[in-house]
Amino acid sequence: MLNLKFDKDIFMSYPLLSSLFVMDFSLLLFTPLIRFPIIISIVLVFGLVYLSMFFGVKLNDTQSAK
Question: Residue 24 class from Cβ within 10 Å (0-12 exposed, 13-18 middle, 19+ buried)?
């Protein structure tokens, strides 16, 4: 069974990337209200996918090292 634990120390060690992740997620959450152009929406989705994969790898590395 997959045991997922949220390690906030990983997010605190990368303050710029974690703030970009929160900002990007919140912008995409309210996209129907803001109505970005399609190019900006694609860039925001790409950034969210990149940051999700980055933090996923970092969290997986710390769990496998323990």
Answer: buried
